[in-house]
Amino acid sequence: MKNYNLNSIYSILIIALFTSVTIAYSQTSVPADNIKTLVEKYKSDIRGPYRDIRWFCTDGSIRQPKDPCPDDIGPGVQHARYKDEVVALGKSNHIFFGQILAFSNNEEIWDSNNNHSRLKQYQLDKYLRLIDDGWINKKSQYYRGSVQVEDEEAWGIAFYKWILAKDSVVADNFYFLRQSLKDIPHSGDDNVAQLMRSESKVISDLYTPFMDLRTKIHSQPEKSDIQKVLDFKTKNQKSLTTDLNKKLDGLVTTMQTFFKPVDVQALLNKSKLVKGTTLGDKVQTFVQGLSSNEKPAYLVNETAQLLLDIREGLLEEKRPLARLQLLDISLKLEELLFQNAPNWEPTTVSEQLEKICALTTASVGAGYLELWEWEQVSGTLSKFGQEQLSLAELTQVLETARAAVEWSAAMVKANYQEVVDVYTTFEPKSYAFIDDRIRGSMALHLGKSVGELGDFIAKESALTNMVMDIPNQSTFRGLNPGYAFGELVVVDGSSEDIEVSSDKIYIFQRSPSDLKPVAGIATVAEGNMVSHVQLLARNLGIPNAALSDANLQSLKKYDGDRVFYAVSNKGNVIIKPEAKMTEQERELFVKKERNTDKIEVPVEKIQLGNTDVLNMRNVDASDSGALCGPKAANLGQLKKMFPEQVVEGLVIPFGIFRDHMDQQMPGENSSYWEYLNAMFTEAERMRNADVPEPEVENYQLRQLETLREAIKKMPLKADFMNQLEAKFKSVLGSDLGAIPVFLRSDTNMEDLKDFTGAGLNLTLFNVLDKEKILNGVKEVWASPYTERSFKWRQKYLLNPENVFPSILVIPSVDVDYSGVLITKGINSGNDQDLTIAFSRGAGGAVDGQSAETYTIYDTGGYRLLAPAREPKYNSLPATGGTGKKVATFQKRVVNENNLNEIKQLAKTIRETLPKETNSDYEGAYDVELGFKEDKPWLFQIRPFVENKKALSSGYLESITPKINTQKEISLSTKL
């Protein structure tokens, strides 16, 4: 209802109730359980989240619903007001229920300070309403006058006129802006594809026998599914309620709308503003071409190309409403492609490669891949015109195409995961939102085509996965070789609060950042191959693989089963039921003596008598394991080799820790050190008395918790604190507490010949306050006694009682991006290649972020293995602590100059470090570094430790096919 011109009033609406706030809330957040109660309350409330309906006039006055704004005041809008508790929830938790667009201004809904949270919540709310009969508006969806459709559409047009005028916003947020058009009313269009999926989900939730058809509609929708729904209704008529019959009829109507051929001529009506422009002419040519050629291959190729053309040319068109028309055309093109992609059924390898290339092109045009990413992969995916390819070349095409599917899915997760995680705490149905978005994208059809190519290559190379009886197995790929036997645990959701067990095999959406020992892992979001979790898995021979969302869903029915899991040296994956294990596989798990395959922490050269705070310039690699751990020793070595690329630093050696541990422990008749050793003595007595190992471990963990808390409260000796203050001034050039520093745990258990210990102990970021630094020293000393660190040590070390922490103190560098260099091609298997993984901000790549990853070839050139898809990154403000900044993905993280510098750095390290350290080490190195204004800074170097037993295992070798990578495949070969 309206009596006004909407465009004239947005700037003066009274919207103080919903003033945008940043993440740092001043009010106490409402607990998730309380919000859940509110949600249930609103579902049964005839007004839902709304209080009443009012007129909102141009002059700021608010009038009763039957008393419109008079003409002498000017136009106004009529809609509901929010309940007070809804307003309060927005202020305390930044959660907004039942948002009315006409009650908001542009900046509020765009919500840039909070990574566009409000607009994403608006989209998620619409999804929940579709799948849950109105959700919080279950009763209030019939509350007449609460929302006026025409007002919302008018607001939507005004919003896009405002936002699409901003070139930088369009460039930085192309995917998200385009997705928002599916939800914000602006032209009367509906998201029919999402409605179809939602209706089928509602039916299957109410009536389980419909699940198979729902799965078909969600994973591979075809026009023939309409008849299948009708047949299902006829077959099950006796069991169907009136409500189910009504819902099935509604689904059929929606499907008929969805599969109704897109009126290509209507695209011309949508493009009136761009008529005569370059893009307008391309739309005209496209429409004319389809009128004379209806072959599916032609349609898919041409539609994909026009999608890409619109994206590439959008910024050349400066008129916001013309941009809106082009984006609406883009959405219609995606709908056309989604309908027709299944109709193209390739018969040869060449046609399959061509279809994959076209669908990837479409994914770029729709924003699921960035333009720079397309530049990196387009050459590999465009080889379908050649007569033949070697098996190695064809496999690279497959890997690249498979990566495009993963990157597309990761784009959806990067944009929406944060909001979905918040909503899932009080509304579990929210979790399916991301899956729904992925299934509505080109990734659905692209994934199917890539899977078919994978099946063909698997037959040609004999590199076949054997994963239970699930479909699309070619999307599994091994990351670390190894084998395991245990209970399969499939985690479809957040893994951060999962309590893992060392004898179980876990399938995660994303592995937890502080993963404790497990028997085996596989992840959908693998993070990156050089994160601490990946390095530990590689080091300990824990089988680790990547899989697709669909694979995880298929494995859910085996959750709780005992399985055998193996990843070969070439990356093929086996998961089979216990009953199908061979005798050879059973022999792998015959019980061994406790100490088998464990190593001893060397303590023969440790110098515990040195209690001086050291200048990092005065330590080098020879001091590792003697005065301090390898972090400080090796960084001191790097300071000598690269003085301009390494910061100054201080080292708190082992001796200072050991000296403090000799103090009396409060509440005990012993020192801290005596308490620790008594615990190990008692544990060994318990084992000798045949006490079960889990009971021994629980005893140790309880004792360690007591010790850990005591160390955190331990008094620091005056001599040590005086030394620390003096060294801050003389070495770091500032008073203690005047500059922010990193405190890095640096134990003698790290970087041993056969054990990396990566990421097990504490690093404190960017600590500024003097008291926080001093308390931080004690926190770092206590960190080797956490449950996670202790369990990893127990798994691998013979003498875990002889673990000593030193601390490396270095000033913070607020780098633009940071990551890891491995002087080996992990993916290529070539020792002369390099692997790098970088993320934006500080602490990049090591904590499992989705990092920008490359192989740099020794022969020249490089290959993008994955782009970064982390929505936020760490900054290190001069005031201390860490900040979070929002990332966009339209530009690469690492530039060409950086790649060349990294290559030169690796060459210098390989040639110089063994000489400088008088070392006979011949393996690869793991280097942490960052760039600030294109200048490289080095933060750590350590040996890159792999599990030699896993790599040389006779069993793993036996399941690794011998592949003739030079075998030539004619692209005219029939599939």
UniProtKB/TrEMBL annotation:
Species of provenance: Maribacter hydrothermalis
GO terms of molecular function: ATP binding; metal ion binding; pyruvate, water dikinase activity
Domain of life: Bacteria
Keyword Ribonucleoprotein: no
UniProt keyword list: ATP-binding, Kinase, Magnesium, Metal-binding, Nucleotide-binding, Pyruvate, Transferase
Assigned EC number: 2.7.9.2
Protein name (Swiss-Prot/TrEMBL): Phosphoenolpyruvate synthase
Cofactor section: Mg(2+)
Reactions catalysed according to its record: pyruvate + ATP + H2O = phosphoenolpyruvate + AMP + phosphate + 2 H(+)
Family label: Belongs to the PEP-utilizing enzyme family.
Limits of the Pyruvate phosphate dikinase AMP/ATP-binding domain: 627-949
Stored PANTHER family: PHOSPHOENOLPYRUVATE SYNTHASE
SUPFAM superfamilies associated with the record: Glutathione synthetase ATP-binding domain-like
InterPro entries, per database record: ATP_grasp_subdomain_1, PEP_synth, PPDK_AMP/ATP-bd
Pathway: Carbohydrate biosynthesis; gluconeogenesis
Cited function: Catalyzes the phosphorylation of pyruvate to phosphoenolpyruvate.
EC category name: transferase
